[in-house]
């Protein structure tokens, strides 16, 4: 009886591993980030929303999510770096994309919190593509923490 049960479980597991699956084969790719709307400065303890515009590789791609890589700047310890990637998904079984649609989209990244007083600058690096060596190319935007001091131009002295 145990042998029959074991054979049935083995047969069932082999049947479930059928490689003739015609379902979607989901793969992922990065979209080119073309623009980002950031404030002129951040305030510690505040939360911000960032609007990010990206270009899909083609109309068969759909936006999946934003990926982040965060770290302290290697050369400037008062700068915090946030790399942002727009991740798309597509069905790799489709050899030709015949779908049409808008390729440029804007999404909001909610709740970017500025909580540390250890940094006086946040550097955002938005992935725009890769070079011939497969190294990332970025749109880099620096945002200071705290309202910048106004840069007043000295008035001309007109006393004669």
In summary, what is this structure?
The protein is mainly beta and 160 residues long. Helix content is 9%, strand content 46%.
Descriptive overview:
- With 160 residues, the chain is mainly β.
- The protein is 9% helix and 46% strand.
- It has 1 helix and 7 strands.
- The chain has one helix spanning 2-16; strands at residues 26-37, 47-55, 62-72, 79-91, 104-113, 121-130, 136-144.
- Strands 1, 2, 3, 4, 5, 6 and 7 form a 7-stranded mixed β-sheet that branches.
- Strand 6 (121-130) and strand 7 form a beta hairpin.
- It is elongated, with a radius of gyration of 25 Å.
- The mean pLDDT is 83.
List keywords for this structure.
160 residues, mainly beta, seven-stranded mixed beta sheet, 1 helix, elongated
Question: Would you tell me the structural class of the helices and strands?
Answer: mainly beta
- Uncertain segments are none
Number of helices: 1
Q: Characterize the biggest β-sheet.
A: 7 strands, mixed
Oligomer: single chain
What is the rounded distance between the termini?
Answer: 114 Å
Indicate the proportion of strand residues. over 45%
Work out the radius of gyration: 25 Å
Could you tell me the mean pLDDT? 83
* Elements, N to C (H/E): HEEEEEEE
Number of strands: 7
Which outline best applies? elongated
The helix content is under 10%
């Amino acid at each position: 009886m145990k042998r029959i049960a074991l054979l049935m479980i083995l047969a069932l597991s082999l049947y479930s591993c059928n490689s003739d699956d015609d379902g979607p084969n989901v793969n992922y790719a990065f979209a080119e980030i073309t623009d980002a709307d950031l404030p002129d400065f951040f305030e510690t303890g505040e939360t911000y929303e960032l609007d990010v515009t990206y270009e899909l590789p083609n109309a068969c791609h759909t936006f999946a999510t934003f990926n982040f890589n965060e770290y302290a700047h290697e050369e400037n310890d008062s700068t915090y770096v946030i790399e942002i990637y727009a991740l798309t998904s597509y069905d790799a079984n489709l050899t030709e994309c015949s779908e049409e649609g808008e390729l440029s989209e804007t999404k909001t990244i909610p709740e970017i919190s500025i909580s540390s007083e250890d940094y006086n600058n946040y550097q955002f690096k938005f992935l725009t593509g890769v070079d011939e060596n497969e190294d990332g190319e970025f749109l880099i935007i620096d945002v200071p923490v705290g309202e910048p001091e106004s840069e007043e131009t000295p008035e001309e002295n007109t006393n004669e």
